[in-house]
Backbone:
């Protein structure tokens, strides 16, 4: 694959991602042998436990040393290792177009993140799928395990035009129902919705045994009001307008944002989902190194 | 005057400015830029009614800003609620209209001025101890003993009212009100009033002031209307007196043109009377048609030389204050005309100047003498001599010329004419003589005579009503054309441009040089009536400098007086008496008809005053709008004699100045607006218990 051809995966970024690895804490089901634990026992080198021999088992699996000491036929079991299947859910609602303090708009930042994660996954022989959503799921790319298979997804990222309102909870529920095998679900979104619905979606995924990773890119100007005086704000997704006096409301606003983020963080923690708040002023590779470099 | 009044009504016209905040609000709302923002969720979580609260606050701020400007403008407009509030010390000016129109009959047969003075006395009686009052007249009257400024001395004020008399003058309401306000400004009373008593004649009260005065703070103005009953009798005004243009010679009869006007609807039969300074009197009956003018000619005689005056008056009409006029003039002594030569040398000129020879008919006495006697004596007056007398050659020619020159240098006037039977020429013209005759020339058909200097005084007696000189159809058959140097000015000429009469100033004297003998063989001029007027005009219009006599309409300002402290003495010579002495800058005007001498140091001037014909116009304002008061707040009530003026006066004392409450309200709006526009930062919500 010629990385230079892709907007969101420039060669310098691809170079800096070398050495990064992504793994999961719980077993996942893969089609091929890989780095990650499988819920199935197989013939790997990692010991799991013992069980009684039953007719039909291959005699080569019998632990003859145990038989010599106890006169019992015991079969030694090993942990099967499989590859990871990751599903990336990318929010393409209109609020993602906002940019004020960051290097990129939230949408571009999310695209950089998605491209980088897919490259990392394929680099460690895992497979990656991509889903774009706003009010509903707009586009889905099935899992691919090769760099050639990544190409359509990278091109699709370049074609994204943020629009519409996001329905994150609905997207999470649909994804949970759609994915059959235990997988890693990565949600990249600004999560500008009531946290309770988002948490319900995450819990649905977790209930279906999926690993969940939440990446929330936000512009610093959203975290605290960067302007002063009287201004009329227009909500990107709905067009609703609200005149506000920034000086009068600045502190209360920042406090409200903090409470919201705490709510999201606690919901993820309670659902055993991994969560990362990202400031779009931070370079993409730094974010990835900080998150995945230590794994 | 009760009710709400704005002392500075100009600011009321600015009240629409109170809409400026609304205009700015909508303007800036259109201009306000919107900021795209990812979500308003946090604002709604913070306060679901944030938008509604903000809108409510914006409208409240807008309302307060509008009210702020409104109250501020109202405060500047100085609203006063008369008839309410506290009564304080009072300063009042009684402004009495003593103009000629107030001389007319009012109710009960008394003059309107008498009624006005009674009303003023009633008001004066209402004054309390600390109150002060002053008196201002519409027509300043030097004869009225008015106190200077405001005073608490009621006795002096009553005495002053008693001394106010009818005038025959017009006056300025605006100037009188200005004087009254300046008088009030000198005091520091809480309540200040101007009480005006007038018949509200349209002529004076219907004209807006040239520079409207700004109403001072706390000033109340009440106009007491003195009723003017209608009269069926006609009124005739004496509108103009016209004296002869040339000096009046003592002992000689002269005509005076008197113009009478009748603005009424009926024909007036009046008698025009006259009385001169010598006690001579007379009169003529004059009929003046309705709404027309009539001229009457009165023939008078000045018995002696010196300042003379005549008083004219009209009897038989309804209104007296526009019926009188005075005129003054200086009668000159009988003039002597000395002819140097024989009677035959001057043609018809001696007869034209002095028909009887003794001056009884024309005021000019003719005598004949020789040039030698003229040169030897000390002649005065007017000298006529032929050209031949000075252009003769011989041993004594230079002496003759020198004698003539000395006569002229000392102020004499001479006329050089050709002899009807002789010819000028032969001699040598001296350098000082700017006129020289050429040889005798003629025209069998005659050349028309033309006036070359129409402004010259020698033609004044020949002018008609339009000022045109009536010297037409005069043909000249023989003449000596004159050559002029730069010092000489042409007076008469021929149709072809040649000059036949010119004048030259020599020292203090004047030389007239003619190229035309006054003989029918030379021209038709001696046969024309204009000849006598022209001949006498040449002599009399050089009879000395006119006296300094000014004609005035009563009430008009006297111009030309030195201002400041130069001592002026006004002495009454005839007519209404007025004797005044003081600084010239303080003398105001002559309110009545008469002749007065004004002594300013060594200089003496004379003033003849006639009544103002405008005062006889019978249009009075019946409504409550008085243009002459401009923007001043005022109220008009009727002085009916029922004593309502004092009650109004007492009520007038009380007034409530609403400026301060308006100002406080404006400050309150300002404070509230500041509080609403700068709210404290919103407090964060308490964290939810998890």
Residues:
């Amino acid at each position: 694959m010629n990385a230079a051809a892709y907007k969101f995966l420039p060669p310098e970024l691809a170079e800096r991602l070398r050495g990064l690895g992504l793994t999961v804490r719980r077993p996942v089901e893969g089609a091929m042998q890989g780095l990650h634990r499988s819920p199935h026992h197989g013939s790997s080198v990692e010991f799991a436990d013992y069980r009684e021999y039953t007719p039909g088992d291959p005699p080569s699996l019998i632990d003859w040393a145990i038989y010599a000491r106890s006169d019992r036929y015991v079969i030694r079991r090993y942990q099967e290792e499989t590859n990871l299947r990751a599903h990336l859910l990318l929010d393409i609602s209109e609020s993602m177009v906002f940019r004020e303090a960051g290097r990129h708009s939230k949408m571009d930042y999310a695209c950089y993140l998605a491209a980088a994660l897919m490259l990392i996954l394929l680099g460690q022989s895992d497979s990656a799928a991509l889903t774009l959503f706003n009010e509903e799921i707009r586009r889905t790319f099935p899992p691919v395990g090769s760099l050639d298979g990544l190409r359509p997804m990278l091109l699709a990222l370049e074609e994204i035009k943020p629009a519409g309102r996001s329905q994150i909870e609905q997207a999470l529920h649909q994804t949970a129902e759609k994915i059959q095998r235990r997988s890693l679900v990565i949600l990249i979104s600004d999560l500008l919705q009531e946290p309770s619905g988002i948490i319900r979606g995450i819990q649905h995924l977790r209930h279906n045994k999926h690993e969940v990773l939440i990446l929330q890119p936000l512009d610093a100007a959203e975290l605290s009001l960067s302007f002063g005086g009287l201004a009329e704000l227009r909500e990107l997704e709905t067009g609703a307008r609200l005149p506000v006096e920034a000086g009068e409301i600045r502190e209360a606003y920042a406090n409200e944002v903090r409470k919201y983020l705490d709510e999201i963080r606690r919901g993820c923690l309670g659902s055993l989902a991994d969560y990362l708040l990202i400031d779009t002023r931070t370079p993409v590779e730094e974010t990835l190194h900080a998150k995945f470099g230590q794994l | 005057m009760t009710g709400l009044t704005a002392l500075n009504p100009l600011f009321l016209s600015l009240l629409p400015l109170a809409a400026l905040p609304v205009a700015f609000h909508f303007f800036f709302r259109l201009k306000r830029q919107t900021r795209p923002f990812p979500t308003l969720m946090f604002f709604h979580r913070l306060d679901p009614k944030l938008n509604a609260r903000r809108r409510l606050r914006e409208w409240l701020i807008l309302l307060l800003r509008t009210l702020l400007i409104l109250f501020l403008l109202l405060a500047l407009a100085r609203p006063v609620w008369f008839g309410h509030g506290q009564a304080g010390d009072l300063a009042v000016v009684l402004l009495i209209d003593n103009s000629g129109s107030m001389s007319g009959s009012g109710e009960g047969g008394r003059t309107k001025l008498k009624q006005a003075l009674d009303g003023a006395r009633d008001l004066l009686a209402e004054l309390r101890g600390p109150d002060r009052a002053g008196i201002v007249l519409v027509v300043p009257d030097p004869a009225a003993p008015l106190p200077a400024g405001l005073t608490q001395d009621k006795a002096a004020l009553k005495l002053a009212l008693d001394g106010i008399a009818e005038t025959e003058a017009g006056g300025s309401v605006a100037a009188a009100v200005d004087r009254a306000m300046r008088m009030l400004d000198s005091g520091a009373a809480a309540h200040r009033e101007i009480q005006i008593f007038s018949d509200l004649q349209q002529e004076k009260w219907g004209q807006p002031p040239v520079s409207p005065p700004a109403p001072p703070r706390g000033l109340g103005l009440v106009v007491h209307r003195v009723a003017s009953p209608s009269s069926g009798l006609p009124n005739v005004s004496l509108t103009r007196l016209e004296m002869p243009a040339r000096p009046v010679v003592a002992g000689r009869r002269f005509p005076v043109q008197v113009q009478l006007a009748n603005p009424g609807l009926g024909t007036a039969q009046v008698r025009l009377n006259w009385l001169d300074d010598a006690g001579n009197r007379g009169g003529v009956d004059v009929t003046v048609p309705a709404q027309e003018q009539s001229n009457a000619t009165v023939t008078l005689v000045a018995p002696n030389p010196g300042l003379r005056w005549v008083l004219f008056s009209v009897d038989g009409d309804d209104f007296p204050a526009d019926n009188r006029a005075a005129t003054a003039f200086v009668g000159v002594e009988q003039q002597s005309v000395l002819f140097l030569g024989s009677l035959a040398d001057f043609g018809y000129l001696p007869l034209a100047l002095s028909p009887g020879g003794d001056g009884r008919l024309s005021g000019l006495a003719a005598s004949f003498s020789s040039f030698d006697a003229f040169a030897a004596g000390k002649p005065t007056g007017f000298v006529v001599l032929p050209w031949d007398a000075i252009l003769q050659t011989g041993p004594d020619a230079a002496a003759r010329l020198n004698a003539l020159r000395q006569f002229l240098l000392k102020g004499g006037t001479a006329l050089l004419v050709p002899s009807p039977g002789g010819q000028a020429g032969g001699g040598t013209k001296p350098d000082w003589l700017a006129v020289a005759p050429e040889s005798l020339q003629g025209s069998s058909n005659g050349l028309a005579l033309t006036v070359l200097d129409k402004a010259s005084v020698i033609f004044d007696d020949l002018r008609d009503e339009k000022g045109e000189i009536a010297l037409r159809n005069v043909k000249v058959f023989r003449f000596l054309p004159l050559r002029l140097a730069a010092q000489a000015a042409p007076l008469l000429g021929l149709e072809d441009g040649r000059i036949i009469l010119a004048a030259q100033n020599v020292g203090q004297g004047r030389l007239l040089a003619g190229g035309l003998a006054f003989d029918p063989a030379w021209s038709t001029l001696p046969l024309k009536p204009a000849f006598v007027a022209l001949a006498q005009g040449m002599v009399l219009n050089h009879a000395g400098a006119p006296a300094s006599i000014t004609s005035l309409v009563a009430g008009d300002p006297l111009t030309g007086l030195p201002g400041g402290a130069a001592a002026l003495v006004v002495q009454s010579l005839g007519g209404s008496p007025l004797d005044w002495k003081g600084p010239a800058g303080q003398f105001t005007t002559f309110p009545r008809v008469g002749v007065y001498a004004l002594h300013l140091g060594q200089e003496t001037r004379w003033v003849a005053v006639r009544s103002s014909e405008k005062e006889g116009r019978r249009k009075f304002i019946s409504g409550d709008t008085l243009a002459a008061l401009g923007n001043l707040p005022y109220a008009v009530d009727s002085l009916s004699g029922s004593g309502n003026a004092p009650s109004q006066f007492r009520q007038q004392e009380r007034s409530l100045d609403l400026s301060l409450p308006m100002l406080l309200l404006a400050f309150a709006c300002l404070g509230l607006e500041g509080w609403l526009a700068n709210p404290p930062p919103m407090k964060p919500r308490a964290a939810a218990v998890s």
